[in-house]
Amino acid sequence: LIGIDEDAATGTAAGPLAGLLLHKKIIEKNSSYQILQGVKLNQPSLLEIAVQDNGVLVGGSSVITMEGKIYIED
Fold first, then answer.
1. pLDDT score of 8
2. How confident is the model at residue 1, as a pLDDT?
3. Among 34, 52, 60, 65, whose Cα sits 20 to 30 Å from the Cα of 26?
4. In whole angstroms, how far apart are CA 24 and each of 11, 20, 37, 38, 63?
5. Domain range spanning residue 46?
6. Is 3 within the bounds of a domain?
7. Cα–Cα distance, 2 to 32 (Å, whole number)
8. Mean pLDDT of successive 10-residue segments in the chain (74 residues)?
9. Do the domain assignments include residue 5?
10. What pTM value is reported for the model?
11. Does some domain include residue 64?
12. How many distinct structural domains can be found in the chain?
């Protein structure tokens, strides 16, 4: 994106990326990887990726960085 150097942790991108790399035979099944994001944002985030026979698992730890409320009118 224009003007955005980096995203915080994006598990919704990490899973499909691992699937693509597996499909292209760049990575192998039954292996694990780590993705580091958010360093430039001062919110370093480490995503754990596990490539298994039946799919890709994405995980990691989380913390609350902000809270809010959404009001929906009838």
1. 79
2. 56
3. 60
4. 20, 6, 23, 26, 34
5. 11-59
6. no
7. 31
8. 75 91 94 92 91 93 90 93
9. no
10. 0.72
11. no
12. 1
